[in-house]
Amino acid sequence: MGISVGSLIFISYSDTLATDYPKSYTPMQTLMQIPVQKTSHSRLSQTDFKNLEFGKYIADHMFTATWNHGTWENSGIEPYAPISVSPAALGLHYGQTVFEGMKAYRMQNGDISIFRLERHSQRFNKSLERMSMAPVPLELFKESLLTLISLDSEWVPREEGSSLYIRPFCFASEERLGMKVSDEYKFMIINSPVGPYYAKPLKVKVEKHFVRAAEGGTGYAKCGGNYGGAFYPAAQAKKEGFDQIIWTHACGHETIEEAGTMNMMFVLDGKLITPPTSSSVLDGITRDSLLTLAGRLGIPQEVRPVTVSEIRDGLENGKLQEAFGAGTAAVVAPISHISIDDTLYEISGSQENAISLNLKKALTDIRTGKAEDFAGWNTILKA
Ligand SMILES: Cc1ncc(COP(=O)(O)O)c(C=O)c1O
After folding, report:
1. CA of residue 324 to ligand 1 center, whole Å
2. What are the structural domain ranges in the chain?
3. What's the pLDDT tens digit per position in 6-37?
4. Other residues' Cβ atoms within 10 Å of the Cβ of residue 155
5. Which of 261, 277, 291, 324 gets mutated to test ligand 1 (max ligand atoms within 8 A of its CB)?
6. CATH of 13-196+372-381, one of 3.10.450.50, 3.90.226.10, 3.30.1660.10, 3.30.470.10
7. Full-prediction pTM beyond 0.85?
8. What number does the ligand 1 atom closest to the CA of 285 have?
């Protein structure tokens, strides 16, 4: 595959790699200087690709680079395994951790498409900046990811509705107990073959007590604390029989923010409506893609604050035809029930010809090569 095997070497990416990339790669092209140590015990044969529970299986290899004295060094790919971290690593105590979630798809011709790689890299860096962490240059992000997926290409599922979930992440690894910004970070990538996220439409609760994020906080960043803080309210909602929470604005709880790992979209009176992103709402890449597709399909859309009371009115007078979450993991997750102030409403609209499903199909067709990639969203790894 043209990948070198050997001990770890120093690579200064910004110096050695061009920034102007082609959108399509053969494995030989991607690579280079990233040293690779291949596993001698692939776990592929123990993986049940027909029953992929989200996150259960991890692909054979992982990428690691270390930020030290202002540069990324010691980059390399090795067999997936536990790593050694100091108990005094700053990230474990003060929460300097950031992650991304993206996907690679098996295309109908056997190639692999990676969805909106540059946009995920940009968001990763926005999150890192908010958490005062070292930036990961696009070149490093892209080369490491493409090398890793070339090596683990057999982990990209062929089953319909399945994909390879890609998890780039970064954490503060400096060994020091005092509260300070870390001088050392690990940037890693691991991958997991996944099937559909939700088996059925969701029953959700509009949350008016707990808050996920407030304006000026870290809500727009994919930092670990945002998710850790959401577990307790989500568990309370689960006890009441709900699958997910819809967060509302921290001041007054009058407008819709987003769901746990998805942006919210509604079809109200024939129009696709979604709240704007903000410092408290993640700038979802699926949301952005669906809005672009809706524009092309001629679906009227509005990006504007969405009030809880208009959703309640729409549920009561039947004008709310669809509600769904949009996110990388679930893609499009239809909602069947919404609870507002302890009243449970059912969304009775038919699933056939649902705007959500048409948008999901349009997106899937692009990712799998069945429809033209008109916006240049796919980065292709040739089979
Ligand atoms: C809080 C939150 N909102 C929205 C999303 C959807 O974003 P994307 O479509 O980029 O996955 C995610 C998932 O990344 C998320 O964690």
Report:
1. 13
2. 13-196+372-381, 202-349
3. 333 333 333 233 333 446 655 444 445 799 99
4. 23
5. 261
6. 3.30.470.10
7. yes
8. 10
